[in-house]
Amino acid sequence: MKAALKRRSIALVLALVVPAFASTVQAWGDIGHRIVAELAWRQLDPAAKAEVTRLLRVDGSDSLPDIASWPDHLRDMPEKAALGKATGPLHYVNFRDDRCRYVPPRDCADGRCVIGGLEKYVAVLRDRHASDADRADALKFVVHFVGDVHQPLHAGNRDDKGGNEYQVQFDGKGTNLHRVWDSQMLYTRDLKWQAYADRLAAEGKVKLPRPIAPLDNPYAQWAEESCKIVAGRGFYPDGHRIDDAYVAKNLPVAETRLREAGKRLADLLNKTLD
Ligand SMILES: [Zn+2]
């Protein structure tokens, strides 16, 4: 009796843990998304803050960081699994080569990429005739996708599922390059997300890259920046090994992307919710 119960509880734990684990390979880990949301929250103007707070309450939440990873967990919620499947391709965009030039019909057919996802959900968030429930969902997607598009491997140019299929050795263990960039490099600071956000905020205002003329789509620019980082020399580590030198060089890059994402998300929400 006892053994059977134990077996059942192990099965239950596995059922809970395995999908959560599977979903962590889709995005900045939870820590990265929380940091982006927290940095944005601190830079919202009072009107945007009030509207974000109101929409979060519709959703039974009171914290922007708490909802930032929601789109990664939809597939684990039976009633949201279809939405999770439909929005799966909206977490990333694939570029074709090192030039990282975004060509919408080719790279984002039917709006099914992170750039299309941002266009779609920013429009819903802006629409005061849309229901509060739809706008609350749109807010959660926008917060999440601004984070994703700044994770370099969500807009890479290789045929390896954003580095998920590129195995590396890190700290004596096997992993893949996507997970290293999602969270494992960030963990080397040994900070909880609040303290990490404090640390990044203490660096002061982030200097955003200039808008590229004539590109009038900011989301495409953010994706192209990510692609350029992936296409840079040494991004794919020699010998599939992440050593201290790799972290020393690339962790600041990841942190700059988090700061840029936070600032841009704040600017976007300030503009959209005015
Ligand atoms: Zn994602």
TrEMBL record:
<dbReference type="Pfam" id="PF02265">
    <property type="entry name" value="S1-P1_nuclease"/>
</dbReference>
<dbReference type="InterPro" id="IPR003154">
    <property type="entry name" value="S1/P1nuclease"/>
</dbReference>
<keyword id="KW-0378">Hydrolase</keyword>
<dbReference type="InterPro" id="IPR008947">
    <property type="entry name" value="PLipase_C/P1_nuclease_dom_sf"/>
</dbReference>
<protein>
    <submittedName>
        <fullName>S1/P1 nuclease</fullName>
    </submittedName>
</protein>
<dbReference type="GO" id="GO:0046872">
    <property type="term" value="F:metal ion binding"/>
</dbReference>
<keyword id="KW-0255">Endonuclease</keyword>
<feature type="signal peptide">
    <location>
        <begin position="1"/>
        <end position="22"/>
    </location>
</feature>
<dbReference type="GO" id="GO:0016788">
    <property type="term" value="F:hydrolase activity, acting on ester bonds"/>
</dbReference>
<keyword id="KW-0479">Metal-binding</keyword>
<dbReference type="GO" id="GO:0004519">
    <property type="term" value="F:endonuclease activity"/>
</dbReference>
<dbReference type="GO" id="GO:0006308">
    <property type="term" value="P:DNA catabolic process"/>
</dbReference>
<dbReference type="GO" id="GO:0003676">
    <property type="term" value="F:nucleic acid binding"/>
</dbReference>
<keyword id="KW-1015">Disulfide bond</keyword>
<keyword id="KW-0540">Nuclease</keyword>
<keyword id="KW-0732">Signal</keyword>
<keyword id="KW-0325">Glycoprotein</keyword>
